[in-house]
Amino acid sequence: MGQDRLGQLKPSQLRVLIAVADGGSFSEAALQLQLSQSAVSYAIATLEEELGVVLFSRGRYGAVPTPVGQQIVDRARHVLHLIEDIYNQANLAKGFDGGQLRIAAFRSAATHILPEVIAQYCLQYPAIAITIAEYDDRPDVEADLRKGKADVGITYLPHAPDLEASELTRDEFVVLFPPDAALSAPLTWEALAAYPLIMAPDGDSCDAMVIHHGRQFGVELRSTYQIRSDATIVNMVAKGLGAAISPRLAAEPIPDGVQVYSLPTPFFRTICVATLANALLPPPVFAFLEMLKAAMAED
C-alpha cells in the first residue's frame, strides 16, 4: 500500500509545488517552469487530491502555502535533493562511459565561448550527454548551480561566496554609437552622458556595474530606452536611436557602420567558470573544466 502511494508522487509535481511556493503565484511558477498556467493548476490540484490536504491558500494576491503545505514544500525540496544526489552518484560511477554534463551560461558566453570547447569535448567524450541552459544574466546561472540544475556555470565577477570560480577572460565594455554620430576622440564622460542611452531594464547586472563605474567619475548614466535583448539594442543603435554601453561579446556581431569606442576610463568584466563550493565533481565535469580553462588560456 505504501509503495503504491509513493509511486503516485512524481518529481515533476514536486517541482511545480516548489515553484508555486517560491514564486507566490501559479502564473509566476508557470513562467519559471515554461509551462501553461493550466498545467501548473492541474499539477497542484492532482497533488492535493492525492494527499487529501489543501496545499495553498488562493487569493487575488497569489498563492500562499497553508501550514501543512509549507511542511510538504520543505520535504519536497529534500526529496528532489536526494533524487539529484542519486543521479550524481550514478554519474560518478559511470565516469566517461555515460552520464551528463549540465552547463548554465549567460547568453553571450554561450554564443561565443562554449561552442568550440563543446565540439572538442564531444569528440573526446562522445558518451557524455550535454545540456546548455542560456540566460540573459548571471543571477539565473548561479541559481541553477544552487538548485542542482547545473554542474558548471559561466558567470562573471563578483560571484557569490558559495561558489568557486576561475577566471576565463576579460570582456571590455564598449560604447556603440550610430553611424552618423559626430564625436571627437577620445570619448569624454560629458559627451557620453549627453547622448540618449539604450540600456537593459532596471536590475541588469552589467548595467549596474557600468552605472557604478560612471559614478566614480561623477557621471550619472541614465537610460532613454530600456530593452532586454542585446541584439535589439545593437540594431537600435545602428538605426540611429541612441548609444549603448555593452560588453563586447554581448554586442557581437556589430553591424557595419556602428562606431565603437572604449569608455572614457576603460572598464572590463571578468568572465569566469563556477561550480558550487566544495562540490564533488564527477569526472566528466572535471574534464570539461580543465578543457575550458586550457582553451581560454590559448586565446
TrEMBL record:
Residues covered by the HTH lysR-type domain: 9-66
One matching Pfam family: LysR_substrate
Keyword Iron applies: no
Transcription found in the keyword field: yes
Record CDD domains: PBP2_LTTR_substrate
Record key words, sorted: DNA-binding, Transcription, Transcription regulation
SUPFAM superfamilies: Periplasmic binding protein-like II, Winged helix' DNA-binding domain
Cross-referenced PANTHER family: HTH-TYPE TRANSCRIPTIONAL REGULATOR CZCR, HTH-TYPE TRANSCRIPTIONAL REGULATOR YBHD
Family statement: Belongs to the LysR transcriptional regulatory family.
Name this polypeptide is given: LysR family transcriptional regulator
UniProt source species: Leptothoe kymatousa TAU-MAC 1615
